[in-house]
Amino acid sequence: MINNVAVVLLLLGAGVHSFEFDELKKYVDTHKEEYVQALREWVAVESDSSDITKRSEVQRMMELVAEKLRVLGGKVEMVDIGMQKLPEGGTIALPKVVTAEFGSNARKATVCVYGHADVQPARKEDGWSTEPYNLTDIYGNLYGRGTSDNKAPVLAWIHAVEAYQALEIDLPVNVKFIIEGMEETGSNGLAAMIEAQRDTFFSNVDYIIISDCGWLSTRPALTYGTRGNCYFFAEVEGPKQDLHSGVHGGTVKEPMTDLIGILDTMISSNGSILIPGIRDAVAPFSDDEWKLYQKIDFDMDSYKAKIGVDQLMYENKVELLAHRWRYPTVSIHGIVGAFSAPGTKTVIPAKVTAKFSIRQVPDMDPAVVEKQVTDHLQSEFAKRKSPNKLKVTMIIGAKPWLADPKHPLYQAGKAAVQRVFNTEPDLIREGGTIPIARTFQDVMDKSIIMLPIGGFDDGLHSQNEKMSRYNYIEGTKLFIAYLHEVAQIKKD
């Protein structure tokens, strides 16, 4: 009995002293200006992965990431992932992927944090109120391209590890990082790299954490699902050249008219997808999901005000969120070849190409969707008895990702949010696509959580992107707490 009591007391003592959260919080609070300065330095790098003329800047950004991790004593590598083929011919080197390791204790769990350091394009003349690559602090909001997506979250994870080290507190888990520089343009080369290192760098990874998303409201959130994306081009080609509508209008079947006609057959005015079979594989909406959605903090009027509309497609919270997150949607993005410049031009375009996408949800298969869309558009085009030619091409086929929100990773997330923010988090899904999550799931068969710190109003990909000081600093504390909570999960 005495031995058992001693063991219990020893465990209790270890539990009390193993996580000195107050000390870690104080460390973060006393170094927050340094954290802001680090973000300022990273934002100043124009790491736009979509612009090949900025490729050297993306590579410089990756070197800054590597150096930041080296300073902390991590085992850092810059992994060459090959070349990128350019549309006009030729190739250019892809930015190296940064990997880092902190700790190798086989008795501890190992988490792998994924992030990216590239950004979307940004110019002041696009409508920014500040210079996009000059971090600007206005009333506690840190404005700059890449602040929320994804430079501040990556830095917050690094600062979390740094805090443990600075206070000489053992990391409760082994931590690995994988940071890339091509996420905004499709993570070119990353899937092959993950596959190649599945049995080396990733061999001992237990859990994967992604912080490349945001909250739904002012309440913290844990994200357990994302939609996939099938992106299509539909090209209609007719005369050998553009024609004058006054001279030739009424004598030919116009490609633009054919294209708009078939696009109109894909979706109704109330948002229903009209492509046969497209919703057959959609997982049914369960009672448990309905109850989960009911509890989510989401205000319809605030959402309308935020996006600037007077009316939404659906009138209640659950139905709206369900169609935003867990049902497929069709969106038409643009038409190439159509006249869009200022002024008037009476032209009949000889060839026009529509760009549209269908967001995927479980249990849809992109290959099946490709056939359904192609068959439908070809069938509708045939009904028009047009001499023009239709070509349908799917250029992206990203699968959806879904986790079990009852998994211990999410219980750990709830505990960490409660510790830092003193509230229960919302369990949410994302309407957008983060393909790397499904890649990790398929290649490595590991449990994944998305643990966001970005605000609901951060303006990702938009003008005036920002990360609030509050979310940045408290988010660092959240990551510190989460590492501790994950360590409490029993390893299989």
Describe it for me?
This protein has helices at residues 2-17, 21-30, 32-43, 55-71, 147-166, 190-196, 245-248, 255-263, 287-294, 300-307, 317-325, 366-383, 408-421, 435-444, 469-487; strands spanning 75-79, 83-85, 91-93, 97-102, 110-116, 136-138, 141-143, 174-180, 207-210, 221-226, 228-237, 243-244, 329-336, 347-348, 351-360, 389-398, 401-402, 426-430, 447-450, 466-468. It has 492 residues and is α+β, with helices and mostly antiparallel strands. The strands form six sheets. Strands 1-4-8-5-9-19 form a six-stranded mixed sheet, sandwiched between helices. A hairpin with a 5-residue loop joins strand 2 and strand 3 (91-93). The longest helix is centred in the first third of the chain and has 20 residues, at 147-166. It starts with a helix and ends in a 5-residue tail after the last helix. The relative contact order is 0.17.
Key attributes of the depicted protein:
single chain; disordered N terminus; alpha+beta; 492 residues; 15 helices; four-stranded antiparallel beta sheet
Mind sketching the topology for me?
Layout: H1 2-17, H2 21-30, H3 32-43, H4 55-71, E1 75-79, E2 83-85, E3 91-93, E4 97-102, E5 110-116, E6 136-138, E7 141-143, H5 147-166, E8 174-180, H6 190-196, E9 207-210, E10 221-226, E11 228-237, E12 243-244, H7 245-248, H8 255-263, H9 287-294, H10 300-307, H11 317-325, E13 329-336, E14 347-348, E15 351-360, H12 366-383, E16 389-398, E17 401-402, H13 408-421, E18 426-430, H14 435-444, E19 447-450, E20 466-468, H15 469-487
Parallel strand pairs: 5-8, 5-9, 9-19, 10-18
Antiparallel strand pairs: 1-4, 2-3, 4-8, 6-7, 7-20, 10-17, 11-15, 11-16, 12-14, 13-15
Helix pairs in contact: 2-15, 3-5, 5-15, 6-14, 13-15
